[in-house]
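Quick one: structure for this chain?
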Amino acid sequence: MKSEAIKWIQKLGMGVLLGGALCVAAQAQELHGWEKVKHDGVLKVALYNDLVPFSDKGQGIDADIATALADKLGLKVKFLPFPADETMSDDLRNMVWKGHYMGYGPGDVMMHVPIDPLLMKQEDKVLFFAPYVHEDIYVVRNKKDIPALDDFSPFAEHKVGAEMNSIGGLVLAGADHGKYVENLHNYKTARMAMEGLLKGEVSAVMATKPEIESALFKQPNAGDFVISKLSFPALPPKGWVSGLAVKATNQQLAIELRKAMDELQQSGELQKIFANYGVTYDHP
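Got it. Here's what it folds into:
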């Protein structure tokens, strides 16, 4: 009888433990947004691949900023690197509010999202906030090949590189009725274009300033190159701003992340992260 009683007590204990575990699991499933992130203790961050120096395979400026944000919130960070899809809407659907049909994502927050009024109006399932970087198109040239640069005319004689299908590449291809197409060398990425410049394959490259500065960072021959801004009707006159994005219903998570981003900016930590990659921080 004693042994039967002991078995009954053990079964009762296991039932209580199992019931308690199921209750905890049910409670966790009911949580969402900021409350779920706090419960899990992990901030899942969507990061682009092939966006050097900001992010590539979970490394770069955006990865460091995301780590700093998570630390401010008392969380661990988990990166979800992903390749850019055909449109920004695709990226937002896959990595912010729905998830990819293959089962990848979404993250709790996505880095490096354009803070653009038209995009914000179009994407009603997404909350855009916390702009943290301003970018613009610049030209870097080998000053021995091109001593001065006031317009695109030197590219009629000297080879110029750009990332394929980038703003710079498209502008160069169509500028002055296609006058520079023959000397335009399209590269898979801006970093590859900069490598081509350093190797002497091209005399100039059109890219964003962070892409240029990070590629020249700590290069022994960096003094051979000059970075300048060219005005052209097809180029964005004031550049653009990028920030964070979360699912539209996750407003509290956005508030907490915005506070953390403000702290990084005010403390100077954000500027230091950019400087670690040789990039000048351009406040939005």
